[in-house]
Amino acid sequence: MSTSSALPKCVTETLLELSDDRLVLGHRLSEWCGHGPIIEEDIAMANIALDLIGHATNGLTLVAAEMGDGVTADSLAFFRTDREYRNLIITEQPNGDFANTMVRQFLFDAYSVPLLQALSEISVHSCEPLAGWAAKCHKEDLYHLRHSSQWVLRLGDGTAESKGFAQDSLNNLWRFAGEMLSPSAALTELFKQAPTRLAEIATQWRKTVAAVCAEATLTVPTDPSRFVVGGRIGQHSEHLGHLLAEMQSLPRSQPNAQW
Amino acid sequence: MDDDSKSVWKLLESVPDPEVPAISIVDLGIIRDVSIIAGIVTITITPTYSGCPAMHMIEESIRTALYSEGFEQVQIKTVLSPAWTTDWMSPAAKERLREFGIAPPQQTSAELLLQIGSGKLSTRPAISCPYCRSTNTKLQSEFGPTACKALYTCNGCLQPFEYFKPH
Fold this sequence. Notes:
The structure holds 2 protein chains of 2 kinds.
Chain A: H1 9-30, H2 39-67, H3 73-79, H4 89-92, H5 98-120, H6 128-156, H7 160-173, H8 178-181, H9 185-190, H10 195-215, H11 239-247, H12 249-253
Chain B: H1 3-13, E1 31-37, E2 40-45, H2 54-68, E3 74-78, H3 91-100, E4 102-103, H4 109-117, E5 137-141, E6 149-154, E7 160-164
C-alpha cells in the first residue's frame, strides 16, 4: 500500500466507480463496431465508446497513482474480478437491439451530465483531480446526451414498430434506474457538506427523462417496489463475468506482454 | 522567456496535428507549458478529446522534433485541467482549417453548452461550407473519422466536408 495518500478516500472511490461505469459501457458499445444498422451509427457508437474508454483510462490512471505499489490503469482494468468492479449494473447489460442500446445510453447520459456538472463544481483543493476529470468528461457527455436523446425521440415518435422496441427497452431497463437515483457511499461522503446538490442530480435525471419521453410519446415506467442495486459494492448481474472474461482474455493469457 | 524555451515553442509550432496537418499542436492549444530546468525539457500537454488516439502520435512527434534539434532529455506531462476547448483556437488557425476544407467551430463552448442544455434537441446552427461559404448545408453524421469532427454535405456546391465540432 502507498505510504502517503494525496487524495481523500471518497475521491478515489468515486473515480473508481465512475471509471468502471465508462469502461464497461465503452466495452459494450465497442461490440457494435462493424454491426451498426447504418454506417453513421456504427461510427457514432465507436466514437462514443472511445470517449468513454478515454474517460476510464484517465480516471483509472488517477486511481492507480493514488494506490501506488505498481498498480496501473491497465492492471486495474484487466486484472480485477467482477466482484471488484464498481460499475452500475445498467452498464453491463447486453446491447440487445439498437433501440435498447440507445435507451440504455440515454438513461446513462441523463445521469452522467448533471453528476459530472456537480463534480466539476467542487472547489475543495484536495478534490481538484476529480473536478478536472469530471469537467473534461462532462463536455464530451453533452454530445452523447444529444445523440442518445435524439434517437429516443426518433424511435419513440417513429413508427408503431420502433415505438414498440423503444418502449419495451425502457420498461426492461427501468429496474436499473435505482442505482442512478441513490448515490453510493463514496458520493454521499463527497457531498457531505452539500447534500441538496447531490439530490439535485436525481431530480434532474427524472426531469430529463420525463421531458424526452414526453416528446418521444413514450410512457415513463412506474418505479418497481424494489430496484436492482448492488453494482457499486461489487454485486453484479451475471453479465459482467462474461463481459470481463472477453475483455480481459488477452492480457490474462499474456500477463507479462509489453505493448 | 529564455532563448531555449523560445526555440522549443518555435519547434512545437512546426509539429502538425496528425489528422489535420494544416494546423500545429500549438495552434490547437494542446501545448500548455514549456519549461527547461537543469537541461530537462518538460512539455505539458492537454488532450483534446479524452479518447483521442492521435495523442500518442502527437507525443511521439514532440519527442522526435525535440531530439532532432538536440534536446536529449524530454519529459511530457499530461494535465486534464483546464479542460481543452476549441475556444483556444486562434482565428488564423480557423482560417487555415477552412483553406484545408474543414469547417472550423462556429460556436463557442459556452454557446454549445447553452444550446444542448436548452433541451431543444433538433436546433443546430447552420454550418457554413468551407469551400463556397453557403449555409445551405446538411448534417450527414454527428461523428466522423475522428472524435472531433462531424460530416456535412453542402447543398450549394454539393461537396462533402468535415466540421470541427465546438468543444
